[in-house]
Amino acid sequence: MSVDVLVTGTGMFAGRIVLDIAATAKHPVTVMVAGRNTERLDWLRTAGNARARMFGTPARVVTHRLDLLEEAASEQILEIAAPRIVVQAASIQTSAVIAQTGNRWSQLVADGGLSATAIFQALISSRMAAAISQNAPGTHFINCSFPDVVNGLIAAMGHRVLCGTGNVAILSNVFDGAEARGALGDGALRVLAHYQCLAPWRRKAEDRKGAPAPRVFVGDSEIDDVFATFADVRLTPEPAIEVSGASGVTLILALAAGLPWSGHVPGPNGLPGGYPVALRGDALSLDLPNGVSEDEAVAWNDAFETQSGLTVEGTKAVFHGRLAELLEREGFAHAQGFDVQALEAVCEDMLGLRDRLLAQPQD
């Protein structure tokens, strides 16, 4: 069997992608969903095909049960599906941790930043990337698991990754749909945004002062006060799946149909953070405003993790700032960094730390 799109994972993020593809496809597309939750697979297949008929689209959803953590699972599903595009949305750490409280693990993530979960987010994605490199090098790989940081790890391991979904695309789309957009002129809206720029938009407008702001351009003109301009925009405290999961659908469908596309993605070609991009043929390139160089855009995004987070320097992953301090305090063996090729062993150690902290009440 050969499918156009393989979606790995059956969670809410994967479900949004599959169901929105089913409702919006304009060209024939077959989507396979792979994961271990049989009931969820059955529902995504049923609902996806129902939506395709409901909206009159040429989409078809099929499923395959597979435990993505089993040995050689990625190689197995690539052989079964022979996909043109892999959309990896499975992780051993759910994004819901951003809204959780009550234990010392959620406290560490809240204090040190989401890059505390980067190793967990990278586990399945790095295995899939390696399987694609070895067995299907022509397959496009879209990693949805914390792409602002994880895509850099994948690239440092020597594997290709096209991009991620969500994060910068959440902000670009909510800004483009905001009431204020009409007064900003007809120029294209372009946004530079690291995932750390999302948190302020979960707060009330009056509580955003001094928070890290995205850079927003209309045409080539940068908006001076983004918080004031889009004061009415507010995200949910939980992951904004309705926008983030959906944000990759137009790209996936364009890629499947061989059509050009422009928009916003995190982690394009393994870069840190999020950018405006353009798809031409099989290549994704930055689509920056005039006056903003690629080096400037990359350095601006990378600075967020350098302050507190995880960066990639050659083949070494390095923790920084408050996150590094917290990991050091907890006795994490790799608090000073690790070689990316040692990811599997580092993940085992991080799982031990997470289990220990989950069992302890918040300070």
What would you say this structure looks like, in words?
The protein is of the alpha/beta class and about 375 residues long. It has one domain (about 85-363). The protein contains 13 helices and 14 strands. Strand 7 and strand 8 form a beta hairpin. InterPro entries: NAD(P)-bd_dom_sf. It comes from Afifella marina DSM 2698. This is Saccharopine dehydrogenase NADP binding domain-containing protein.
Topology:
Layout: E1 5-8, H1 12-24, E2 29-35, H2 38-55, E3 59-65, H3 73-81, E4 85-88, H4 104-112, H5 118-135, E5 140-143, H6 147-156, H7 168-176, E6 189-192, E7 215-218, E8 221-222, H8 226-229, H9 241-244, H10 249-257, E9 261-266, E10 274-280, E11 283-286, H11 294-307, E12 309-313, E13 316-320, H12 321-329, E14 338-339, H13 343-358
Helix pairs in contact: 1-2, 1-10, 3-5, 4-12, 5-6, 5-13
Q: Tally the helices: what do you get?
A: 13
Give the N-to-C terminal Cα separation.
Answer: 53 Å
User: Low-confidence runs (pLDDT<50, min 5 residues)?
Assistant: none
**Biggest sheet layout:** 5 strands, parallel
Number of strands: 14
Question: Percent of residues in beta strands?
Answer: 15-25%
SS-based class = alpha/beta
- The coarse silhouette is globular
Radius of gyration: 20 Å
Helix fraction by DSSP (H/I, runs of at least 4): 25-40%
Sequence of secondary-structure elements: EHEHEHEHHEHHEEEHHHEEEHEEHEH
Question: Number of folding domains?
Answer: 1
Round the mean pLDDT to the nearest integer and report it.
95
Widest β-sheet, arrangement of strands: 3-2-1-4-5
Protein name: Saccharopine dehydrogenase NADP binding domain-containing protein
